[in-house]
Amino acid sequence: MYLCLTILAAALAEDLREGRIPRQLVGFGVLASQAYVLSTSHSVTVALRTFAAGICLMLVLFPLFSIGALGGGDCKLMIMLPAFLGIGPALSAVFLSLAAGAGIGTFRLVSRGIFKERLVCFVNYLREVNATGRIGKYDLPASSTGGKMAAHQIHFTIPLFIGVAVVYGGLIGK
């Protein structure tokens, strides 16, 4: 149960320190999650089902990665959630993470006095997408800028950790 939070805490620490989540940590998380589900369910079918659900979670969030709004490591961490949490609770954790991310991001923008500036930037991005019909990069993740976060960005591992911790704590989704 706590292995998932430990892996997420390690990912959070690396994300804060380096601006990226190492592939080896994500790989370990995925393997550990499958070992966990196999040891608790004793069923390869259940392990495959939770792995497939994790891939689906990652694919659902892929559009956010493709425009630069979410890092690749954040997306790949989703693969392990259904094995550790169960499919329904994993969906709850991701929803809570997105809500926490929106709250943290809004707070960051308001506290830095750049909310209006970023809103104008977002509206201009939407206009460009509407005019050209092409979805391009909205932002550059920290991993492509040498680990440096822009003033408007957040480390998504923070809200992801919060969402999973809330579900583990039994407050929502169990």
Note down, in words, how this protein is organized:
- This protein has 174 residues and is mainly alpha-helical.
- The chain has one domain.
- The protein is 72% helix and 0% strand.
- The protein contains eight helices and no strands.
- Helix 2 (23-41) packs antiparallel against helix 3.
- It is globular and about 50 Å long.
Shape: globular
Number of helices: 8
- The number of distinct structural domains comes to 1
User: How much of the polypeptide forms β-strand, as a percent range?
Assistant: under 5%
Question: Quick gist of this model?
Answer:
By secondary structure, the protein is mainly alpha-helical. Helices cover 72% and strands 0% of the residues.
Write the layout of secondary structure elements.
Blueprint: H1 2-18, H2 23-41, H3 44-66, H4 72-77, H5 81-85, H6 87-111, H7 115-132, H8 157-168
Helix pairs in contact: 1-2, 1-8, 2-3, 6-8
Can you give keywords for this protein?
174 residues, mainly alpha, 0% strand, globular
